[in-house]
Hints:
By secondary structure, the chain is an alpha/beta fold. The chain has a domain at 189-326: Rossmann fold (3-Layer(aba) Sandwich), CATH 3.40.50.150. A hairpin with a 5-residue loop joins strand 1 and strand 2. The protein contains ten helices and 17 strands.
Amino acid sequence: xxxxxxxxxxxxxxxxxxxxxxxxxxKRIDSVFExxxxxxxxxxxxxxxxxxxxxxxxxxxxxxxxxxxxxxxLTGFEATRIRNELKAxxxxxxxxxDFFGVEIDAEWRSSFKWDRIRGAITPLAGRLALxxxxxxxxxxxxxxxxxxxxxxxxDPYLLYVMQSLTxxxxxxxxxxxxxxxxxxxxxxxxxxxxxxxxxxxxxYHRRSPxxxxxxxxxxxxxxxxxxLETLVIDGDADDVLLPKGRYAxxxxxxxxxxxxxxxxxxxxxxxSDIRLADVSTTRIEEQRSTDWMTFDxxxxxxxxxxxxxxxxxxxxxxxxxxxxxx
Length: 326
C-alpha cells in the first residue's frame, strides 16, 4: 500500500485548512498505483525498497543540489548500491540532487529557474504552496527549504512520483515537501486555501489555457499568489503561436502567447497586480542530456544552423515568469 509512504503528509494536512482533502485521500493514492497500467512500476517499487536504510548526517534543501546525507554515511558497498538503485529511475528531468555523495546531474539545472523565481515572489515562510505539474518535486523541496509550511506537488507521471519518494525515504516526517500522483484534473476538490500556487511549464500543454488559469485561481485563497512560468513568443497583445504540429519536438504543445497576450489572459481570468518578473531564453547550459537523462535534449530540438529557431522553424524556446494576485 503506497498510502503508508504518505502517512506523515496526512498528518500535516490535518493541521491546515486543507483537512477536507483527507476524506478518502489515502484510498485515492492507493488506487492510482493499483490501477496504473505501467510495466515499470514493479521495478521502481523494488528499487525504492532496495535503497539502503541509512540515517543522513546532513539535509540541505537550500543549495542548488538538494543534498541528502554525505558520502561518509555509507560503506563502499552501500554507495554502489544506492547509485545503481537511483539509476533505475532514469530519466531524471529536474535536479540536481546529491544522495550521500551520489550526484544526480538531471536534464534541467532547475536551480537556474529557482534563482529567477525566489527573488520575484512573496517569501514562502509559513505558506501553503501547491506546484501543479511538479515533476519529481525539486521545486517543492526548495520551497520547504525556504520555510513553506507545506509544499505540495501534483504530478500524474508515476516515475516522477517515485523519484520524489526516494528523497522522502531519507527525510524526517516533519519535512513539508511532497508529490502526490494526480494531475490538476484529478486533484481533490478545489478548496481556495493555498497561499501560493505554481504552474511552471504546464500552460502550453493545455488545450484550454484559460480553463487552466481559472482552475489555478480556484485553488488560491483571496489575495493568494499565482506564479506562472510558460513558453512565450515575441509580439503584441494579439500574438499567439499555435504550432502546426510539434514544437521543439514536443507533440503536446498548444498555445504560446506573447508576454502581453499572456498578461491579458491572466487579467481576463480575474487576477490582479500582474507583474512580468522575467523573460529568459532557454540555454543549453540549463537544459541538456546527461548520464542521468540520456535522451535527446535542447541541442537536438534546435535548428543546427540557427539556434534562434526550433528544428521546425519556430522561434527558439523562451520562458516568461509572471506573478499575479488572486
